[in-house]
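User: Here's a protein and a ligand (calcium ion). What would the complex look like?
Assistant: Let me lay out the input and then the predicted complex.
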Amino acid sequence: MKTLIAVGVCVALLAVPGTADAQGMWDLATDFSTTTNDDTSTWSYRKGPRDTHTVLPNFGDFGPFTPGPKQGGWGGGAEDWSNPYLIWNNTPFVQNWYGSVPDIPAGSVFGTPAGDSELIASWLSPITGQVDISAEIVFRQDHGPGSNGIDYHIDLNNSAGNLLTGSLGDATSLAGTTTGPLGVSGQSVSAGNRINLVMDSQGTGAYDVLGVALTITQVPEPATLAMLATLLGVCLLGMRAPRPL
Ligand SMILES: [Ca+2]
Ligand SMILES: [Ca+2]
C-alpha cells in the first residue's frame, strides 16, 4: 500500500511543474493575439498618453515585408502610420522591413510610437503574488539617417508606480542599438494590476522601429515550494521502502 501511495504522489509531482509553467508565464510574442485587444484581456496593445492609455483600436495588415506576406498588427488600421502600431511576424523566418537587411526575427513583435503618442505593451495580472519581469527593446531599422531616440518605462499601473526607466538611442540610432536585458525581480502584484512597458518617441517616431520583448514569470510562493519539497520527500521515502512480503 505504501508503495502504491508513493507511486501516486510521484505521478502527481510529475504533473505539477507542467501545470505551474502553463499557468505562470506570459510572453508578449508567444501569446500575441490577432483577435483580442481590450480592457479585460491579459495582454493589450495600447497608445498613450502614459497614464490615460487606450487600446489600439484596429487590427490590420502592414507591409512591406520581404519575403512577405504582409503581417498583422494592432494600430489605427491597416498601414495607418499616424498612430502607434505593434506588429507580430507570424512566420517561421526572418523578414526584412524596409532597407536591405532582414531584421524582424521569426515570431517576434515590433512596433513604433507615434510622434505625439506612446506605444504601450500592457499585461493585466490574473494573479496575486510575485512576478519577475524581463524585457528588451532593440532598434530594427537598418538604414539612415536614424532615430533621434526613445524613452522607456516599466510601470506598475501608472507613472506613480514606475519600476524602471531609461532612454535609448541618439540622433543616428539604427539596427542593433539595444537596451540589453531589462529586469525587475520579485515584483508584488494583485489581480487586476497592470505591468506597462511604455515607449515614448521623444517627439518623433521616425526610424523608431522597435523590437519589443516582454515576459512575465510568476515566482512560486514559499508555501508551494515547501509543499513540493515535502511531497518529494514522501516520494523518495516511498521508493526506498521495502516491498511487503
Ligand atoms: Ca530592414
Ligand atoms: Ca524617436
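Summary: The CA atoms of residues 84 and 114 lie 5 Å apart.
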